[in-house]
Amino acid sequence: MKPILLASNSPRRRDLLAKAGISFDQFSPDIDESSRDELPPADRVIALAADKARAAILASQSAARLVLAADTLVCLPRSQEGFAEMALGKPTDIEDARRMMRLLQGRTHFVRTGIALIDRDTGETRTARSDSAVGFSPMSEEEIEGYLESGEWSGVAGAYRIQGLAALFIDRIEGSWTGVMGLPMRELYVILLSAGYRLPIHG
Question: Would the pTM count as exceeding 0.70?
Answer without folding.
Answer: yes
